[in-house]
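Project outcomes to date are best conveyed with an example. Our students and postdoctoral researchers have been running inverse folding experiments weekly, and each run begins with a structure described purely in tokens. The record below, which covers 567 residues, was selected by the lab manager from last quarter's runs and is presented without edits.
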């Protein structure tokens, strides 16, 4: 059971009924004008069953003493029907100022001047114009990308910032996105301020200049425009958590444990656009910005066991929180372990983007919660920006450290796709792959000595030991040489084909063999399986990580060995 939920059960309390008098304020009529409500459970009894109901979501800021939920009308009806007590504070309307397009145009200053911290939220049209203006004013440094236009007509916009926008440089690709939950607003203008900070200080601030020159930066300030502008393009007051189809986008991604469609909803258009973008741009390091509490949440959310690189995750998360503490007043960003937490240890989440990026995309992503209040008052936006500004820049800088290099064919010099793995260390897809276009790879690691294997189908593997130091980059370029695995052709095994279908290997052969055996081993020679082939099918070992393996088909006279990429 989830450690967090175990704690909830252990802290099960029956509290006096007078403490829940506010519950009476929340009636079904409230949902006629509001999509959802944030409530607190009076106990953790049957929490697993409750979370399986439509319209009930575990919300940010839950602890072992207090369970926070976000409920819709369906969720409210379920809780009332089951007589489950909860408390609710009628939300205080946020003091929100909007900047329309006319006001923005009138206030626009010279591009050489850095903008003052924003103290208002832009209308949707203003948002589009702000990003467009940056691409026009800094054409050598940034480019506006529309990664997908939604059915509403609104777009998922990303501003790319780099000193070389068209050339495929051998640089890490970094991504910030915000407001995936449409009513978690603070990160939205904060990302616009970060864009301005990077662009207007380029060429004058040596640290910013060096960062932009060495990292390919992508910033998506608004990941759920339909949720944020639910009430219309001129205001964010009526923003909601969900997208236009009332789906929580942060439970809509493939899950490493539960597989496809863990929330039982079809993949939303926003989800599909982001998955395609992350793959096309080969994102290496990223951050997903939310609100509702104040903490860094690092992988895993779905697995109880730790990520293979847990030491590195704690290191970079601690660095972010410590930087915030230097610039913020006491009491800000001190949730969980003074500002950081392992995701599953806090609460289990399935279908989140953080685990999707880390597991399926082979990149690294953590979730940044920057404000206890979701719909932050406009006049508080400058504070959130000033408290997080240095930490945001420093996290981008983390993409420049660790192990990198190119992997090429030793004969042609052309880039090849190869796996960079640490056999005694990796699990759950923590190894990385070089990119087919340029052979570049990035592996972020905590300080230490690591034994690595570089492997690709039809190439001899290469073995190296590297000494990683914190805050430093180690460059290791690798040449792999083609080496067809030797095969003794005494019988007709040469015509056998091996294919993976789900968790099975299927052996296709044009003739009948009395006895066939299969052996599976790692590229460095560790034997994982040796068994007889029955009915041309062999089940792969459970918990086998994705990667390149040696597969041998054997009879009493012959052996055929091939390298296979097993998913």
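After processing, the design step wrote out the following sequence:
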């Amino acid at each position: 059971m989830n450690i967090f939920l175990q704690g909830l059960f252990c802290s099960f309390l029956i509290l006096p009924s007078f403490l829940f008098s506010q519950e009476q304020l929340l009636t079904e009529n409230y949902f006629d004008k509001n999509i959802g409500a944030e409530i607190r459970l009076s106990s953790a009894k049957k929490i697993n069953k409750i979370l399986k109901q439509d319209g009930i979501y575990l919300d940010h800021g839950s602890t072992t003493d207090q369970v926070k939920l976000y409920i819709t009308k369906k969720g409210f009806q379920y809780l009332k029907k089951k007589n489950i007590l909860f408390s609710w504070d009628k939300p205080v309307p946020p003091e929100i100022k909007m900047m329309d397009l006319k006001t923005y145009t009138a206030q626009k200053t010279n591009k050489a001047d850095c903008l003052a911290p924003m103290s208002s939220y832009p209308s949707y049209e203003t948002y589009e114009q702000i990003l467009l203006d940056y691409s026009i004013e800094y054409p050598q440094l940034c480019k506006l990308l529309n990664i997908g236009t939604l059915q509403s007509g609104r777009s998922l916009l990303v501003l790319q910032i780099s000193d070389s926008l068209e050339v495929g440089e051998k640089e890490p690709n970094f991504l910030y996105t915000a407001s995936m939950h449409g009513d978690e607003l603070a990160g939205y203008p904060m990302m616009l301020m970060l864009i301005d900070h990077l662009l207007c200080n380029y060429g004058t601030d040596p640290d910013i200049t060096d960062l932009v020159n060495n990292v390919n930066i992508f910033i998506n300030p608004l990941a759920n425009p339909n949720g944020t502008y639910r009430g219309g393009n001129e205001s964010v007051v009526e923003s909601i958590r969900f997208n236009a189809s009332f789906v929580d986008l942060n439970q809509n991604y493939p899950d490493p444990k539960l597989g496809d469609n863990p929330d039982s909803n079809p993949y939303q258009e926003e989800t599909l656009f982001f998955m395609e973008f992350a793959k096309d741009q080969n994102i290496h390091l990223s951050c997903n910005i939310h609100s509702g509490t104040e903490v860094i949440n690092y992988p895993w959310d779905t697995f109880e066991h730790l990520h293979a690189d847990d030491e590195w995750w704690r290191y970079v998360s601690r660095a972010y929180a410590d930087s915030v503490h230097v610039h913020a007043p006491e009491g800000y960003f001190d949730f969980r372990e003074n500002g950081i937490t392992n995701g599953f240890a806090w609460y289990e989440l399935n279908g989140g983007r953080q685990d999707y990026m880390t597991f399926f995309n082979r990149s690294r992503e953590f979730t940044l919660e920057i404000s206890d209040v979701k719909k932050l008052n406009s006049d508080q936006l400058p504070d959130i920006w000033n408290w997080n500004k240095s930490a945001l820049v420093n996290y981008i800088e983390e993409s420049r450290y660790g192990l990198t290099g190119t992997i090429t064919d030793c004969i042609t010099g052309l880039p090849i796709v190869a796996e960079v793995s640490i056999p005694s260390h990796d699990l759950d897809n923590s190894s990385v792959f070089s990119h087919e276009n340029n052979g570049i790879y990035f592996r972020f690691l905590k300080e230490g000595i690591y034994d690595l294997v570089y492997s690709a189908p039809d190439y001899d593997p290469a073995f190296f030991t590297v000494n990683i130091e914190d805050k430093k980059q180690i460059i290791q370029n690798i040449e792999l040489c083609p080496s067809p695995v030797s095969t003794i052709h005494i019988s007709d095994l040469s015509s056998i084909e091996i294919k993976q279908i789900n968790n099975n290997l299927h052996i296709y052969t044009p003739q009948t063999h009395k006895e066939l055996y299969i052996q599976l081993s790692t590229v460095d020679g560790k034997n994982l399986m040796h068994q007889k082939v029955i009915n041309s099918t062999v089940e792969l070992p459970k918990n086998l990580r994705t990667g390149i393996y040696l597969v041998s088909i054997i009879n009493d006279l012959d052996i055929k060995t091939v390298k296979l990429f097993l998913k």
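The radius of gyration is 26 Å. The chain is about 25% helix and 25% strand. The training component of this project remains on track.
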